[in-house]
Specification:
heterodimer, A: mainly alpha, 53% helix, B: alpha+beta, 7-stranded antiparallel β-sheet, 5-stranded antiparallel β-sheet, 6 helices
């Protein structure tokens, strides 16, 4: 069985943005479209046989879950 | 041992192929880490999380390797874990309507695409817990709620179904246990990943007062904002200082530190049934 390959979809978004800028485009990360970007990056990776997953150091919130607290409760 | 990342309240190390999650005594309020630690907070949250992981072991496998096979300097406040490949969805279960969910409900009558009955008020208990996933830290700096269809698009139907069902099961089981001990768990956030064998695994921390919202059941009153069980002393005190909620945060007076430590201890003891021994242990 081939070894599982993984890549962080958020990193792929950064990569693609950089590539587009290199090629003379001016990509803009629109608010409210994060889901589209991450879903698109994830589907591209899966289509390339790579699982869209993240390393713990990138994924875990080590700041006291502040993002969750503020996102869910607004404080 | 390699230090990978220092967060505001936890640190991450790599150790012999495992990861080491180390909880500190630092406390943050309104997104600002305060300069005064709360003694035992790190150990209390770490051991509460370890207790929950064990309790949920029949629901879902978890990433814990050991809470004792850790470097002596971190004893009691560290968890040695399997390094997972993490799913990029934050899994939130809510049993009560509050905060931004309330605002979304007032605007649309639903939260994360889940339709709710009309007439609910702040802090109302929902007819049944709902799954309200969000994106990970957004690439624009603004986190966004997702619908379940968005999750399916990102990670596929099978995994999306499983993380939704597991999130609701962990929340429901945890909330039922806490309720018997006078604590309402209003909502919680959990994380999943895949281990080296491809097994879907519960990671990060689970049902702590950082990753969940705990309310004292004896003070619960729908229609108003509820008080957090443990951080409320610090929050209330900080609002009396004139602090503008931007860094640097003010030093916390000794009596507030002690009151807050007692509340964290009370949460741990009520939920686990163990007696906490100050300094980092339980009887």
């Amino acid at each position: 069985m081939p070894e599982q390959q993984v890549y962080d979809p958020y990193r792929l978004i950064d990569d693609v943005e950089g590539l587009l800028i290199q090629r003379g485009h001016a990509p803009v990360r629109l608010d409210g479209r994060t889901g589209d970007r991450v879903a698109g990056a994830s589907r591209l990776l899966r289509g390339l046989g790579i699982d869209p997953l993240r390393a713990p150091g990138d994924a875990l919130d080590l700041d006291g879950q502040i993002a969750y607290q503020s996102r869910v409760h607004g404080d | 041992m390699k230090h990978i990342h220092a967060g505001k309240v936890r640190d991450l190390y790599e150790i012999d192929g495992d990861i080491l999650l180390v909880a500190s005594d630092r406390v943050s309020v309104y997104d600002v880490s305060l300069p005064t630690p709360i003694p035992d907070k790190g150990a209390l949250l770490n051991q509460l999380s370890a207790w929950w992981f064990e309790k949920m072991a029949d629901v879902v496998p978890n990433h814990v390797v050991s809470t004792t096979d850790v470097p002596a300097e971190f004893a009691g406040r560290a968890m040695r874990c399997k390094p997972l490949k993490m799913i990029q969805v934050e899994c939130i279960a809510r049993g009560y309507l509050t905060g931004l969910g309330m605002r979304e409900y007032q605007r649309d009558g639903k939260v994360s695409g889940v339709e709710l009955p009309a007439g609910l008020v702040e802090a109302d208990k929902l007819p049944e817990p709902i799954f309200t996933p969000t994106t990970k830290i957004s690439d624009t700096g603004h986190d966004e709620f997702m619908t379940f269809a968005d999750v399916v698009n990102e990670i596929g139907q099978e995994t999306a179904d499983r993380i939704r069902d597991l999130t609701l099961e962990v929340y429901t089981k945890g909330a039922e246990h806490a309720a018997k001990n006078g604590i309402i768990i209003a909502d919680t956030k959990i994380e999943f990943g895949f281990d080296a064998d491809g097994v879907l695994t519960l990671g990060d921390e689970v049902l702590t007062s950082d990753s969940s919202r705990f309310w004292p059941a004896d003070e619960y009153q729908p229609g108003r904002t509820q008080h957090a069980f443990d951080k409320q002393f610090v929050r209330d005190w900080s609002t009396t200082t004139g602090w503008d909620k931007t860094p640097p945060g003010p030093a916390i007076p000794a009596e507030i530190v002690e009151a807050t430590r007692k509340r964290y201890t009370e949460v741990y003891e009520r939920i686990t049934g163990n007696t906490w021994i100050p300094g980092g242990g339980h009887a």
